[in-house]
Design a protein that fits this description.
It contains 14 helices and eleven strands. The chain is of the alpha+beta class. The strands form three sheets. The chain has a seven-stranded mixed sheet. The protein has a two-stranded parallel sheet with strand order 8-9. Helix 6 crosses helix 7 and helix 6 packs across helix 8. The termini are far apart.
Length: 346
């Protein structure tokens, strides 16, 4: 008795492997994940993170027309048999692979996708007829499986937060952040879209991820429309920029972005995020943004100012910890609206 998959045969490191397609409804049945709590040295895979499973499942359920998954990588604990489509040379590596039903399938990469698919099919069983690519390798024992896991993850690098936001068209807040980089003059031309940290030599002053996080704080809890949120964010950050002369000096070319990051605290993401948190508390005040934020223009933002030590800097170095963010937020609240205690507002 065999499982039979249409497949393409390839060779890596002198070993045959096979690429096929598997209906989603069969994925939970064929590719079982061993949940036995073994010591790491006896496993061929990391322990599954159960908190990721519902996220993957909801991704499929909520986007049935445009979800995308990369291939599962599976080791076969058995001896497969490849049968070419014909004896013609061009068909030598196209055909079917027969795998004994007594064989075990060990997932080297994709156990969370497999578990997410299983959960999603309970809610949307119609997805079961769709397929996912599967790459089959022949299992050569625990040591080889562990090495495959190490190799598959050795050079995998998560995209930066800024690049993820740039390419994410499902998140309305990502759309707002991208739009702000065009509609707010100070952001236009000074935003780093690919990296979430800025090098000393960069001419950029802000990161897309910093604008995103700060705007998320500003708009947190608002139930208005997308257009209204965008208008609020645009007005807020435009007004903020008019109160920070050093930002405008960079924009005009009279000051380098590197110098500003080196010498001032308001050239760092913690300042943007803290301002966003403060801006949220100022939404209900009747004065226009320009009047609310005008005190920012009179503050000494130099990193050497003792006022910022312990709030933004630790030993003179910028610290973006939760406690430092809270301290800076409280200080900004006192600067902008001294009779309001941010701890009670939040």
């Amino acid at each position: 008795m065999y499982y039979t998959f249409p497949a393409i045969r390839g060779v890596q490191a002198g070993r045959e492997y096979y690429v096929s397609m598997c209906p989603l409804r069969l994925v939970p049945r064929l590719f079982l994940f061993d949940e036995t709590e073994l010591e790491p040295e006896l496993r061929s895979q990391r322990v599954i993170n159960k908190s990721r499973i519902p996220l993957i499942a909801q991704y499929m359920v909520n986007h049935p027309n445009d979800y995308v998954f990369s291939a599962l990588t599976v080791s076969i604990d058995g001896t497969p048999q490849f049968i070419p489509l014909s004896t013609e040379p061009e068909h030598y590596n196209i055909g079917t692979v027969k795998i004994p039903m007594s064989a075990r399938f060990i997932i080297n990469d994709g156990q969370h996708r497999r578990a997410g698919i299983e959960v999603a099919l309970r809610e949307r069983p119609e997805l079961g007829n769709e397929t996912i690519a599967v790459v089959f390798f022949v299992d050569e024992g625990l040591k080889r499986c562990q090495q495959m896991f190490a190799d598959l993850n050795r050079y995998s690098i998560r995209p930066t937060e800024s690049l993820t936001i740039l390419y994410d068209y499902r998140d309305p807040l990502a759309e707002i952040a991208r739009t702000l980089t065009q509609t707010v003059p100070i952001f236009n031309g000074l935003t780093e879209f690919e990296k979430s940290t800025i090098s000393n030599r960069s001419s950029k002053l802000f990161t897309l991820s910093g604008i995103y996080r700060a705007t998320a704080e500003l708009l947190d809890g608002l139930t208005c429309s997308f257009e209204e949120k965008l208008a609020i964010a645009t007005a807020f950050w435009t007004s903020v920029s008019s109160c920070i002369p050093e930002w405008n000096a960079v924009k005009s070319g009279h000051l380098s972005a590197g110098t500003l990051r080196r010498d001032y605290i308001h050239a760092h993401a913690i300042f943007l995020v803290a301002l966003g948190k403060v801006g949220r508390t100022l939404l209900n005040l009747p004065a226009p943004w320009g009047e609310k934020l005008q005190p920012l223009a009179d503050v000494d933002w130099h990193r050497s100012n003792p006022r910022w030590e312990g709030r933004v800097t630790v030993g003179g170095r910028i610290s973006f910890s939760r406690s430092n963010l809270q301290e800076l937020t409280n200080e900004l609240m006192q600067i902008l609206h001294g009779d309001c205690d941010f701890r009670t507002v939040e």
